[in-house]
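Go through this one:
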Amino acid sequence: MLKTGIKEFILFLLLLWLWLPAGAQPAGYQGFSAAVNGRYYQLYYTIHQSPHPAKRLSRRDYVTFHLQTSRENGQVLKSSFGKKPFVKEIFLDTPPYADLGFLQQMLLRLSVGDSASFAVRAEDLFGAMHRPRPDFIEAQEWLFYTFKILGKQIEEQVQNDRKQAFF
C-alpha cells in the first residue's frame, strides 16, 4: 500500500511541476511578444503583416508612415491617421541590434504595407527618455504606439522630392 501512495504522490508532484509554469502569466502585455530586453525598458510588440509582403525596411531608408500613440483605455494621445503621414529616415548604424527594444529599431522588422503595435510601461518609457511623466498618465499604465508603413524611399528620391517641392 505504501508503494502505491508514493507513486501517486510522485505523480502528483510531477503534474504540479508541469502545471505551475503553464498557469503562470508572463510579465508582458497579453497578446504581445516580448522583444529582447532593451537597455532602458522592455518593449512588447505585435506585427500585422500585409497579405502581399514587400521588401523589409532597412537602415538609410526614408519611411512614410502613420503613427498613433494611445493609452491602455483606448484614449488616443496623438495620431497622424487622417492627416499628413510622417517621413523619417531609419538611421541605424547596426541592424543586428534590432532587438534591443527601441521603437525605431523595431521598424526593421516591418515591410511596406505592414502595421505593428508596441506596448511599453509609462514609467519605463519616461524614465528612459529622462522626462517627467505627465500627471494624467499612471506610472504602471501601458502606452501603445501603432505604426502603419505606407512606403519607403531611398535618400536620393527624398532629396529629389524636396528639391521639386522647393521650386
Observations:
- Residues 126 and 133 are 6 Å apart (CA to CA).
